[in-house]
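Collaboration report, partner site 2.

Our partner group contributed sequences for two proteins of shared interest, and the home lab folded both. The records are reproduced in the order in which they were received, starting with the first partner submission.
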Amino acid sequence: MSGEFVHLQVRSCYSLLYGTRTIGELVARAADLGYGAMALTDINNLYGVHDFLEACRERGIRPIVGAEVRKNDERALVLVKNKMGFSALTGLISSVMTGEDRGLAPLLPAASAGNIILTDSPGLLEELAGRVDELYAMVTPFSRKILAHAARLRVPPAAVGEVTLLEKGDYDVHRVLRAIAARDTVDNLRGGDCAPADSLLFSLREARHIFSDCPGALTNTATIAGRCRFARIFDGFIFPVYGGERNSAASLLRSRTLEGAEVRYGELSESVMERVDYELSIIGEKGFASYFLIVADIVKKTSRTCGRGSAAASIVSYCLGITNVDPVRHNLYFERFLNPERLDPPDIDVDFAWDERDAIIGDVMNEFGSDRCAMVSTHIHFREASALRDVARAHGLPDDEITAFERQLFRERQAGTAAHIDSLWQSILDTAFRIRGFPRHLSVHVGGLVMTPEFIRGYVPVERAAKNVPVITWDKDGAEAAGLVKIDLLGNRSLAVIRDALANLKENGVHVDERTWDPVSDGKTRDMLARGDTMGVFYVESPAMRQLQKKTGRGDFEHLVIHSSIIRPAANRFITEYVERLGGKPWKSLHPRLDHILAETYGIMCYQEDVSKVAVALAGFTPAEGDGLRKILTKRNREVKLREYRERFFSGASRNGVDDATCAAIWAMIESFDGYSFCKPHSASYAMVSFQSAWLKAHYPAEFMAAVISNGGGYYTLPGYISEARRLGMTIDPLDVNESGYGFRGKGKRVRAGFVAVAGLRHATVKALVEERGRGGPYRSLGDLDRRVHITPADYEILVASGALDSVAPGLGRAAQLWHILINRGEGAGEAGASLFESPVQELPRVREKPLHERLRQEYRVMGFLCDRHPLFFWQEKMASYRKIPARDIALHIGEIITVAGWPVTRKAILTSSGNPMEFVSFEDETAMYETVFFPEAYRRFSHQLEEDVPWIIRGRVEEDHGAVNINVQEIRKVV
């Protein structure tokens, strides 16, 4: 033996609900112990392989890629020697995780090409002997039983350090994870459910002692480690070639781009041609012509899309119809999307109407082959709350006790007092803290799709999601690291709103020619946006955006693009500065080198690409390095690398003569891009959809609000949108079996309620009602309705309560309608040949109708709103004793303490700069919607009460900020 031992069986936290340490911790400890190489062999997955390769590079350890494959009671280690072996391993894991075969024996011989296989399962060793070239018997610190079988079969042994823990104290965490996986308690675990309690990472000297009885096994381990040299997954970008030939794809892309350019621009100017040629040269050099052509074909599957993200900076995307914003007119930065130095693939995001997206993804998979396409996964990690609940359940605590403890903990944290916690709960908290940030399970990315030229299993392990779609086991970062090119096919409710509103207009005889439709230039639309009257309007309807619109008073496209990006959570203090500068406050340039970059945003870094541009201009970063800084700001666990970037930024800026104070001010702006932020092309794409949405609201509010409500609204409650329609002068016509469709419909000053709002009504009943009405005309009576459509008693009860049958039962109250149906319904009514009136009852019993309040409560229960009045109607008498002002008059009382009634319509909690929670809550009364602020003290006192769906009496001071008005809440009282 060379004196070196390599751990070949090491499990990290990516062995989901099994491993107890992060990959970084394992690699760091191995480096400290003097190991020159180690293998990561998580169970049935390669989830963490990219993190493993990176961690090994950073610590100077040679990585060995592999996996511990388990099925039934058998297991094997598969260690990768080369690229062919990696493809064989990804295919093997895919087969195991999709349950295609009964055991490992039929799978492993094919997976052995390019791999080394070790097993300590006697039956498996028996079946593989003679069928696998490089096969070893796996000897662990805990068992030598396999040696006798190995000797008989002449299979050489190899020493494996079975590692699940770094310290003995990790075993308790491991047991909790196993209990969570089993959805059971720690006390119910059996011996075989867990790894050995001594499965620790041990030193080289300890290895010699542990395996002193089989030195040949140690020698073979060193040999295996020397044979496994695969350490780089990325080998160029992976994507199908459009039409089969790369050169023809590039030529086709050019011709289609020029055709689209003539449609978009008419006669092509020199500047347009220069931009087209420049982009096509980079796209061709990078080999991405097929990517653009395939995405363009996907976009053509529907008439309404929104290409967004950095791809909207591409004139090629614009000419192909992938995006809808002119990058030349709006000065969009193409290099944020694609540049000669960029190492990662482009990422084109396309929004489709939310109710069309799944069908489009299905079409794409059918067209390109489900064996060559898969969705990208999302790795779901333990957060504080989920970790606490799962660990507590693993200790056998019931949900109500866990909830009570969470509330106690929350209250004590708010009060700043030390919580009194017993030993059991302290242990639970400690364990929950330990596993916070661990991956828990896989989910499906909302729209990320990858496709490959050959079977996708040869590139990446594939599993099946609950809805039976294939899913790669890497998230978007892992897919990118492997060279897989992701297409994001996403759902957007507002595209459906625009689609449905335009369809409603067409039904009403109004045709909007979208070829000449120019909402951006419409004065009425701009004025409405400037006032912040944007409830229901895409991306500018949130309270924060409406307030920003009011503060700035700007409704033009250019400023809306700025607002869509600067509204990010970490930029609050820069938003205030922006508003003041927009209002005329003098300001000084951060540095002359940045003037051309930040001129249009008043000297404030607003867009993602500003980070890259500033780093290049001020600190001498290359474009690729600047993009790396931009990207690290969005990552989890970014602290270490961000510190490194900061040092490089300050150092580079200093060399360019920038003083430390200026560096610090600029770096503070860079840090405001923490978490999520937008690039300018993305904001411009969203702003275009905002303008289309706003134009419809400004000119055709009935059709627009009907479409908003039909598609589920957005930030606000259903009653909130109904109230907004009434505030716009609409009359809400009630549900009617002869007039209503599935969705809401608008015309003129009226909106007709649709069946979509009725809770509990079966979709099959709605479909039958509408289709039969289309065939046979309006329903003439309850009897006619029942003869023509099969309706269950439960659905009848809902229809009666909603008022949908009032028009076919003239003279009958709702209680009488229900009696009429139940008494006159013969056996088998509603079935073929049955009649409601086979034995008609001549006279109904005297039915006592419910009072108005009760009838309206039933209507509210099934509909979620009242057509002709606000829900506060139910509490009128109880609110009469309070001296309050109507919400529409709040702005007349700036600086005063007022009392007002409020029905909550949306809320958002945030943390202050000092880490204390506060909340913004939107309320409304019968006259207007208004904004309130619960600063930390008010939040601590009242936030938990607002969970109840009841009206409130709110007392607070009216404050004004650059034209935006809100109430600083001092007290709230529930109306009961």
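Second partner submission, folded after the first:
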Amino acid sequence: MPTDFVFRLSTYLTLALSCACLGYAERKHLPEVPFIAAAVVVALVVLFRLETRIRLLAIPDANRVGLLLGLAYLVWAVARVIGRVRETGPPDLEWQLLLIAMVGPLLMVAMPAKLARREKHVGDYWWLHSAALAAAGLSGAIADDGVVFVLIGLYAACAVWSLALLHLRVAGGAVPAIPGRPASARVEGVAADTRYRRGLAPAVGLVALAAALAVPLYVLTPRSPAAKFEFGKPRVQIGYAADQMLDLNHTGELKADDRVAFRVKAEQDGKPYTGLSPDQRWRGRALRRYAQGGWDRGEAPLPTVEAAVAWQPQWTGQVVHFLMPLLVVEALPRKTLAWEPPLLAPDQVALTFTVPRELPGEFLADPLVWAPGAAPPIATLTAEGPLAWRWYGDGTFYWDFQTGPADETDYTQVWHAPAEDASPPLRLIDRTPGPRVAALVLNPVERVKEYADQLVQQLIGSGRLPPDCRDRITLLPQRQYHQVIAEAFTTHLATSPRFQYTLNLRRERKDLDPVEEFLFVTKAGHCERFASALVLLLRSQGIPAVMVLGFKGCEPDGEPGSYVVRQSHAHAWVEALIQSPGAPNKPEFRDNIYRWRSYDPTPSGPTAEEAARSQGRVQQFRDRLTELYAEYFVNFTPEKRRELLRAAGNWLVRPGVLIAIGASLVAVAVAVVWRRRGGAAAGAEVPPVAVGWFAKLLTVLAAHGHRPELGQTAREFAAGVADRLRSREETAAVARVPIEWADAYYEARFGGVVPPPERLASLDHCLSELEAALGPLRDR
């Protein structure tokens, strides 16, 4: 058996790693916990060094130390709870889950108090391992990156190692039993082995074997489509806003969410089209109203524009209300729109979308392209055939038919990449567009206009705008200069070194509006903050603008012409209603020609190669580990599982892989046969004493009425016989013989130490003396 040092080392390492797991996992929820974990680890190191050098505390004294540590923890916990209540108000779900996280420090501070006891029995060790397991399990529930996963793996290896050594020490009688329970007999032969790291390699092997069995089982187990329960504060992920709102007050580090949002199939002239840009934008919803850091759709509609749709509908029996550009009409019965794809351009592409029901909204390739006088470019695919979407009156289309409780919605869009990132030319047809336009120039943050005025003044100073560009009445730039200003503002946010793109969202001045704080204080954020700033900057200069939610990017999805858009592609940008340049500038707003133009002020981040070169190898490894952890554990959705199984199946059927698997199986079979033959040869050299000679003792004792009870070990049986022999004067001198035979048996059977011939002769001689002493008793 390993030395006492090895057993102690494995135990302390196990406890220290469990503290490291919990301290790292809770660092974002409770910033004090890493320091508590570090203090506990230091205390464990000190106790490990002092345990064999000084007398530790008696149980009452150790209990007093534990009480002091518990009181210190209680003071901290009460202060934490009071501060939390003052910060967030009445308890909520996040607050209650935070209390669960606060159990972790209590587990950690109790470990040194338990180890400081001078006398520790097997129950103490089991309590310590239970606390360590609870700490590691809690860290796994809270963890949000792969570092904790590695720490838990190290803990598991040390825990198996320590528990295996604990079992051997209990079997050998080196660890006292729980008071009030029978003590375990000591196995002297096993305890004689002093090899330094005996037991570590088998423990690591067992953990590796368990992982090899658990990983395939984990992959093969069906995944629930329900949302993952988040411990404590929900994860802030990159993804399309499910509630169609944005809140710039959220803080925290955005995490990648690689779940599939929807799929797109592209065809051109009936053949797969593979020319979609990896930066293609997919328009979702427009948010128009901003207040105190939050965006929503608002109540005021967008200005309606002129675009004739000349095509013949077909009658159905539905009775509904539908919105037209100027009035609401009730149709009895309702008309559906028999649809034929319009001809927009020679190079147009047919895009077919497959969107899950749980993803709100419809998504279209941006910018949206249509042709006056032609059918709408979008139609939903139903069992009745393609049914066209309706003209919404603001340059977009909408779908208001119910297709039943299907899991997915399929629709098609006829699209081509326009020369400009803008809609076709539009004319406002509202009789009084002022109220609708006014909602799109509303800027509730005063200092944003101060910032925008300085930028306009810089444009005038550089000659890009004339000095008299402002209207004499409103003091805002005239409409013919709106495009220049929008492009300049976009370039300023996207290229200025003062602004930085980051996924680590923070608020340093919560007394300021988030957009004001972004422009004047933090100057850092992600696409939503850059787009919000641009919308309000444009509005402050009288330029109608809205926030657009959607996606940017797509990935090939196996088959040619098939693409997948993931939640991690979620993006926000800006659309502004800009007067077309070159057209006559008429006084009335509704008499001019406009286009909805898209502007993306978000800086382009570094490429993967540039990011990798700027990081050290340790950081690269950590980022890759976190990426894998998020992809295959945190966000392991049913869709991701199907993709992984499909990829694994394709990989397994490769000829090279099949040959490698076959060669590996042959090598394993040869190794097993060789090991069995070698084991048999080695076993032939071991004398029969190593396996069956102990039966000689049992035969002698059985002849005199001493037989082992059911479930009794050899050592326990020998100890019981020895006690009975000591009770008689005639056999007291040979009472030690059964124990000596049991020790030799354990040495040979479990310790691998075969007794030398001289000791075998001595054991036989002692057995003869025992049999002679028992003879007169049998005759009585």
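Feedback sent to the partner group on the second submission included the following. The chain has a mean pLDDT of 78. The chain is about 45% helix and 15% strand.
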